[in-house]
Automatic annotation (TrEMBL):
Amino-acid biosynthesis in keyword set: yes
Assigned protein family: Belongs to the TrpF family.
Annotated N-(5'phosphoribosyl) anthranilate isomerase (PRAI) domain residues: 7-200
Single GO MF descriptor: phosphoribosylanthranilate isomerase activity
EC number: 5.3.1.24
Full protein name: N-(5'-phosphoribosyl)anthranilate isomerase
Domain of life from the UniProt record: Bacteria
Key word Cytoplasm present: no
Pathway: Amino-acid biosynthesis; L-tryptophan biosynthesis; L-tryptophan from chorismate: step 3/5
Catalytic reactions on record: N-(5-phospho-beta-D-ribosyl)anthranilate = 1-(2-carboxyphenylamino)-1-deoxy-D-ribulose 5-phosphate
BP terms from Gene Ontology: L-tryptophan biosynthetic process
Length: 206
């Protein structure tokens, strides 16, 4: 399998961000969705290595708000609501990756993702839920076998030290990364750095 990208989401506390920035991750996520327990109103003013893409997570947000956050230094935008393909196109800038999230369950119609192709950089497949994400629950990954497109995707939803090895066993070149969140927290928004290091060792086969 190619080098799997690792995204750690839901950061907001300066010391915790600084500690995470020392780890070999690819994306660091900041949740700009007020109803989330991990909500942060602003991108923390902390130096993060250029190798880590600062990612804003939004749910059906005003586009002006997203553009404001991009201007503050985001390299990626993760859209977790019912954002349309046109919305994704309008939010995209030359320097910003677009990750469109979908909650997956047995009712998922893969055909509904087709209009996003050529617009978004990645899909992200998460557990379907009314709160749009951060549930700590995984979905039935067997459903991914029916995913018919070439667009690479991140896997998320309740990833933890027990199920990450199972995620690594998914034989699919389109699986480009893992998104780690609530199962690695000491409290919402504060990550357990030691536990994340253990996950990184598993993922990077160290
Ligand atoms: O984490 C949240 O609170 C959240 C709220 C609304 C939308 C997305 C959110 N986080 C994203 O949810 C997934 C799965 O997280 P978990 O591992 O199940 O806790 C992940 O992509 C986060 O970026």
């Amino acid at each position: 399998m190619n080098h799997l990208k690792i995204k750690v989401c839901g950061m907001r506390e300066p010391a915790n961000i600084q500690a995470l920035a020392l780890l070999p991750i690819d994306y660091m996520g900041f949740i700009f969705y007020e109803k989330s327990a991990r909500y942060t109103p602003n991108l923390p003013n902390i130096s993060i290595p250029a190798s880590i893409k600062k990612t804003g997570v939004f749910v059906n947000a005003e586009q002006a708000m997203i553009h404001k956050k991009i201007a503050q230094g985001l390299q990626a935008v993760q859209l977790h609501g019912q954002e349309s393909p046109m919305y994704c196109e309008q939010v995209k800038t030359q320097r910003t990756e677009i990750i469109k999230a979908f909650g997956i369950d047995t009712s998922t119609s893969w055909e509904s993702l087709a209009p996003y192709m050529g617009i978004v950089d990645y899909f992200l497949f998460d557990t379907s839920s009314p709160q749009h994400g951060g549930t700590g629950r995984s979905f039935n990954w067997e459903l991914l076998k029916a995913y018919p497109y070439d667009v690479p995707y991140f896997l998320s939803g309740g990833l933890d030290l027990v199920n990450i090895p199972n995620a690594l066993a998914i034989k699919d070149e389109r699986l480009i990364g893992l998104d780690i969140n609530s199962k690695f927290e000491v409290e919402p928004g504060i990550k357990d750095i030691d536990k994340l290091q253990k996950a990184l060792k598993i993922i990077r086969h160290e």
